[in-house]
Amino acid sequence: MTNDEPIRRDVLQTIAAVPLLALLARAGVARAQTGASPVKVDTKGLVAKIRFEAPLEGFLKEINGKYKLRVTELTLGPGGYVGEHNHEGPGIRQVTSGYMTYVLPDKTVVYGPGEFFFESGDVNHTVFNKTDAPMVHVLFEILPVSLGGPSLITVRHH
Questions:
Q1: 87 located within any domain
Q2: How many CA atoms lie within 13 A of 132 on its CB side?
Q3: Closest by alpha carbon to 140, among 37, 53, 34, 65?
Q4: Arithmetic mean of pLDDT over the chain
Q5: Which of 21, 30, 94, 152 has the maximum number of C-beta atoms within 10 A of its C-beta?
Q6: What is the domain count for the chain?
Q7: Is residue 36, in this structure, part of any structural domain at all?
Q8: Are strands 67-87 and 108-111 parallel, antiparallel or unpaired?
């Protein structure tokens, strides 16, 4: 190893981190979806707060400016539900507290604190909180940059 290799490695790591740091620097202010709900899906006990939102930029030039990353925290009260729905885009979900009963067309799964799962957005599903405590989960989604409202949409058939 030459004396220049550690310096070169540090410079490359710094350059690789720049797109992520730029994305974080543009984080949107958290917004609660309150008042008249833009959601057209039957819900009970649902509170959504957008915690982060920024357009995607980086080396994948074909998606730059077309999509954004959004992180939304959803709280579903005891006995609450989100009726059958889809999402505008794909994403990873993580339950942070409580238990989510996740009903898909072919199976039902119960997710607990710390568990992750992937959702493509185009698979019909329903969510229930069948417990007596609030259930909180976080959505990490890739969405069209023009989407201003919730990603939750009524079922779209292929």
A1: yes
A2: 0
A3: 53
A4: 84
A5: 152
A6: 1
A7: yes
A8: unpaired
7: left (phi over 0), alpha (psi -120 to 50) or beta: alpha
Backbone angles phi, psi at 25, to 5 degrees: -65, -25
DSSP-assigned letter for residue 132: S
Q: How far apart are CA 6 and CA 8, in angstroms?
A: 5
Report yes or no on 26 lying in a domain. Answer: yes
**Domain containing residue 147:** 4-153
pTM of this structure? 0.74
Q: What percent of the chain has pLDDT over 90?
A: 72
CB atoms near residue 38 (< 10 Å): 10
Query: 42: domain CATH number?
Result: 2.60.120.10
Whether 103 maps to a domain, the answer reads yes
**Distance (Å, whole) CA 81 – CA 100:** 10
